[in-house]
Each structure stands twice: as structure tokens, then as C-alpha cells.
Amino acid sequence: MDKKHRLGTVSRSAVMLTILGAMVIPSPHVAAEDLAAPAKVLSIQSPSAAGQTAQVPAQKAAIKWKFSPSFYDQATGYSYYYATADQMISRTIYVDPEGEWHAFAEGITIHRDYNLRTPVVDRTKYGDPMEGLYSTVYDPSKKTATRGVHFAGGPDVQHGFRYVKNYYKRKDAQGKEYTASDFSLLLRTPSGVIREIERVPNRLHFKAMPDGNALAIQYSIPHKPYEISIINTETGKKKHLAYAQLDYYDAKGGRLLITLNKTVSPNAVYTLADGKQRPATEQDWKEFKSISLAEGNRIMMPESTTAPPAVLQPQDLPVTSIQHQDQILVRAAIGGRAVNLSFAFVQNGRTLFPVREIAEQTGLEVKQTKMSGKAGGTSFTMKGPGGSVSLTPTDNMMIGGQLFVGSDVLKRIGLPVQGVNWNP
């Protein structure tokens, strides 16, 4: 990636294994960097009437741009648009309440994430898979981008749930390799502790509830197609509500408008207080739609009056600089050093730590060897100040293609874990 298109000034090792995960500098905030500056206008020399040389701006051919709406940010009043051109270039642009147009540097895409319900920097532009562990949340009011593990279904993106898709190598009866997958369902409680609740075959969608818990909608294999549950954000326990798809949620009234997984009288109104349901009427649909619009439970789109003029040239607009920072969720004492981690989690009572982040901050050496079998077909040799260990990770040690190990492994190589503090 071109240097001017990178977020922040984080220096990265050129010889780090992709499968080990994302590096985190041991500081929650990274120095800011302007992602791009407006291009200088070329000039040519032209003789003046007095025989002296004068500067004359060069004429640039206009680019034919196409514009499409992205989202409207209520907090700032900014309307965001995608701009694409025939030359296979694209920009994200926006107009402020005063009618002034701005652009982000080429290669930076800002969109509103459906699950997190907040603007994010397009993860696919920076090497993260669409269903990966990390994402970059963008705050339009502060012009900051925070890269880390963010959660949905809670009052903010700091607490709630996160699902991460995991891929594994398998062999069939004939010895032919194929790829299998599942989802890790992670919960971060208000105290800051992150736990893996379960491994599920399909991803979930979450809606925050007034009591701090979350509505969860998931594809159900035995009761096709959907199941609605409530998940307790303190314990992670599920409470089944209905085998149905959620159409609308009236948080204040404690009601759901659902489509049942059967063809007879498929639409119903479900009351959370008593668990009862009744057939939905046309008036119910109108009422729930009205409530949804009033509560802003959708991605708001720009008004047609703010559409970019056809002659707008995004490459000539002032470029908005983004301040980049890394999120630190866990601070641990490992091998006598203070280590800042963007992520760690508890699995069956055992805390697992990201190998790459520990390697970056403690000098741990890691060698990767490709092999046939589980966990992406990879084995690892880890060398610390007190020795080395070779291991073939189990599926549970791999989250989003990244390796995690417990304190027992770290102790064997001379990096004992002396303490763990979860940031609330």
C-alpha cells in the first residue's frame, strides 16, 4: 500500500507472519498523520509582454465522476457519498451543513457498518477480512479512526458481542483437503472481561435492549430459517423467544413484530413481558414502521438536496486528515514487562493471549511451518528467554486466522504471566 494512504505512523515489521494477527504498539494512542494533502497544480513557463517569465497554471482535463449516496451522520450533519471514475479510482466525499465539500484521501472508504451501527473505515482496504477480528471505527466529529475489536448489541461499541469467522483445513475420506468454518461468539462485559461464549455455525445479528441485554437473531439449522433469543450481556446465557425473523423492535414498548417460520398466519406481534403473541394487523405494520423511523433504527441516507453537482471534481477538494489510534483493551504483565494488548479472551476459564502482539513487545521469536491438517495447516515454534516450544494449534487456539496461547505455554518459554488487567 502506498505510504500516503496508510492510517497513522505505526511502523510494522516486514517479516511478520500474517496468520499471527495484528500488531499493536504499546500505547493506546498513536501519533497522528495527515493521510494525504491536496495535489499541487502543475504550472508552465510562459513569456510575458515584458519579456519576463510568468507562472501560468496548467489546464487539467476534468474527470468524469459518478456519485452515489453512502449515509447521513446525524451527530455532525455530514452527508457522505461514494465517488467513482472511469479510471478505476474512487473517493469518499462529504458535504457539511454549510454546503462545503470535502474528500478523504484516495483509497480510504468510509461507510456505516450495519452491525456496529457506526461509521467505519472500510476494513477490506487495509488487509482485514470482512468478518475478521479487527475493524476501524471512525468518529466524524473528532476525525479519529480507532482500530481494534469493537462490539455490537450493547449501549456502545465497547461492550456487547462480536462474532469472528474461523476457517480450518480438513480432509475427507479420500484424503482431499477442504475448508470448514465456524463462528466464535465473543462477549465483552461492562467490567471489560472478554469471553468466548460458544462456537456457532452461523453468524448472529444483535440489537441493544434498554435493560442492557441484547436481542439476537440467528439462522437456525433445525428450525429453519431463523431463531430470536435474548442474550444476557453479563453471563452470556441465551433465552429462546421464537423461531422467527425479526422485522421490527419496539424497545420502549417491549414488543417485536416478527415473521414466524411457518406459512399459516406468519406475521405476529410478540410481547416480551409475558411471552405472548397475536396475529399482526396492517395497523401494526404501520405503527412499527413509524416507531422505527422515529428511533432512527436504520441507516439514514442523505437528502436529495445535498447530492454532489455533476461538475464536482473530488480530486480538487480539501482532504480531511484522519487521526489514527489503536484500541487497548487489556494490559498484562508478561515476563516482567508491561504489555498492552488490543485483544485477549477467556475460553473455558483459561485466558488466551495474541502471539503476535506479545512477540512485538517482548522479543518472542515465532517460526511458522506449513503442514497438512487442522488449524489452517500450520505448526509453530516459539522461542523465548527461557526456552522454546513447538506446537500444532487446535482449532480453539485460532481466532480469525490468528494464534492465541495460554499462560502455560508462555511460562514454558520464560515469559510467565504475572497479572492481567481488563480495561472497563
From TrEMBL:
It comes from the Bacteria. Residues 1-31 form the signal peptide. Keywords: Signal. This is Copper amine oxidase-like N-terminal domain-containing protein. It comes from Paenibacillus rhizosphaerae. The lineage of its organism: Bacteria, Bacillati, Bacillota, Bacilli, Bacillales.
